[in-house]
Amino acid sequence: MENIREKLAELQGKFAEIYGVSLEASVFAPGRVNLIGEHTDYNGGFVLPCALSYGTFALGRKRADRKLRMYSDNVTRLGIMEGSLDDLKAYENDHFTGYVKGVIWAAEEAGFVCDTGMDILIWGDVPNGSGLSSSAALEVAIGLLIKTMFSFDTMTQPQIALLSQKAENEFMGMQCGIMDQFISAMGKEGHALLLNTGTLTYKHIPLELEDAEIVIVNSCVKHSLVGSAYNDRRNECEKALALIRQAMQDGVLALPASGKLPEGLCELTAEEFEAAAGVLKDEILCARAKHAVYENDRTIRAAEALSHGNTALFGKLMRESHASLRDLYEVSCEEMDILTDIANAKEYVLGARMTGGGFGGCSVNLIKAGYGKQFRKEVGEAYTAKTGKKPLFYACVPGEGARVVEPQA
Questions:
Q1: pTM surpassing 0.70?
Q2: Tell me: the pLDDT tens digits for 176-227?
Q3: What burial class does residue 181 get, using C-beta atoms within 10 Å of its C-beta: 0-12 exposed, 13-18 middle, 19+ buried?
Q4: Half-sphere exposure of 163 toward its Cβ, with a 13 Å CA cutoff?
Q5: Is 180 designated active site?
Q6: Which residues are 368's β-sheet partners?
Q7: Catalytic residue among 41, 119, 180, 297
């Protein structure tokens, strides 16, 4: 928290310098790493992320008019970008302001109407394109900022997450699930969060590893097809679910144990999926659905393993997760496979997998305690030798979710 307060003091001065006035409110929302449970969130399944100690600040002050003035201290070349509460639409040259406008728009759709414009400054240290949810951190920060400035007392943290997801889905056009925004809003220091994305019920699980540690590795690669491919995967899963539901309605397949038609693929057990796989004539649809169902099962077992300190089983499930993401869901890439293969070949690595939407970004690695320095050296050198790229390493310190951070007097 001291580092956060130090950074806030710096940004407080920057806000006064940029806008010529002092700020009224300041908030912080973290990025996240997903330990396991990838591409299950929009299929109604479980995920197991934790909030990180780095994220995004949003500072603001109300205006007397309806202007939105927005400044990012990460991309200072853009200067102050302007918008209006009367023109909450997405434009091609929005840059970061699309997320700001999107959350304000989503809030207004839900009845939380900002009655004046704002001066806003943002800064974050979640690497863009890393798969650690820099966009979700920004969205949740803006949601909490307007809640604070406009005294939207009935706006809850889970609701901020849902409004942020709505902004991403409907304003920005990225069909993400709820995981990223939910963990940013609801993270707990020292804990992972097991979230049922179908019901939004959740449980904080202590992430106190006596014999292991978690290291995040940025491959420093991000392929451009991530956005379109992400939406494609979601559409493929929806098609697979529709075929299964139709077969159940027609009596070709038995209903699941619940006795109801599944609302998401992850409501199916592995056994129920295998019985239903025959109606998925398309190999691609079958592969996508199989990943979702089996990844959901892995996530439930991984959370149980974590609760009992069984890091060996947790690592095994991480390896299986990456293989499924690579072979069935096809969202890995050559560099990420090289990175995880190098890590998984080390005897002191319990498990390594890609994390995030895919096609680059970061891996998450569970290693035996005390091997952090050796891991960084050996994996870094081997990855650079094979790809020519130098990876970045981040410690995984499970942090608190979005919160108001009081500015200095």
A1: yes
A2: 889 999 999 999 999 999 999 999 999 999 998 889 999 999 999 986 555 6
A3: buried
A4: 29
A5: yes
A6: 212
A7: 180
